[in-house]
Amino acid sequence: MPGHRPERVGAVIVTYFAQADAVDRLLGAVAPQVEHLVIVDNTPGPVAWTTPPGVHVQANGNNLGLAAAQNQGIAQLRARGVTHVLLLDQDSVPAPDMVAQLVKALRQLAADGVPVAAVGPRWRDRLSGRDVPFVRLALARMVAAAHASDAIAVECDTLVSSGCLILVTVLDHVGTMDAALFIDQVDTEWGLRAQVAGLKLFGVPAAVLDHGIGESFVRPWFAPGRAVPVHSPVRDYFLVRNTIAVFFRRPAPWRWRLLQLVRLPGVMLVMVTQMPERGERLRRILCGLRDGLLLRLGPAR
Known about the structure:
By secondary structure, the chain is an alpha/beta fold. Helices cover 37% and strands 23% of the residues. It is built from eight helices and 13 strands. The strands form four sheets. The chain has a five-stranded mixed β-sheet with strand order 3-2-1-4-10, sandwiched between helices. Strands 5, 6, 9 and 11 form a four-stranded mixed β-sheet that branches. A two-stranded antiparallel sheet has the order 7-8. A hairpin with a 2-residue loop joins β7 and β8 (141-144). α6 (233-249) packs parallel to α8 (278-294) and α7 (254-274) packs antiparallel against α8 (278-294). It starts with 8 loop residues before the first strand and ends in a 7-residue tail after the last helix. The model has no long low-confidence stretch (mean pLDDT 91).
């Protein structure tokens, strides 16, 4: 791993039933780019891979949720004196210069006096092979963020947590991830919280992350240009529950709330009409609606 540098970057990787080859591929890509590496494993029982030398592994022996695991990793890195935290999922593989490009963008934004919450890479969807654009919220919809071809950073309204680079001082100001959400909408909630605090999110086109979301995807019959990732029914529960919980629990931009009034019903319709296990999905969605309105959070009930 590289020696001392002005920016001391540490990475948190959260794993859950990860395969050894996937872990090896991710570690091989990220280890040369950061000073410290922490893996937080949520797999019940023993892991299926060997702990690499120089990497701290916290094995929870149980699924504590993505947000809680990220917070554990952040605490480990803070104890090691890092200045920047990089969040990664097991389904991600960064390009060789991803971290350097993110740091470069942060430096430029800081020099320009821009209040930044986090920067994130341009991620390439592993299923479709397409680059997913950075997005801004418009009137009840999301649109690709407009930017010059040579832009170092592009302001956006959402960032996927995997690949996000966050200053420790920002975590001091905004707080860490909301462990009550468990999984899904964790990155969205943190980003909204940061924006309410007056900070901004930026995508960095030159930073690239190969990333997978979902087991497959379907195209809604009412919006064939869109692709909705297919997860397990229990993930549908978390998505529905947490979207509603964030809608009511946190101060959020009106544009985001308006988008959810349109988007969430459409996503639920796709889940119960175009995805397998329709009956189980419907049951989970109804449970998510109930628990979201009642603010029953934590693990799935």
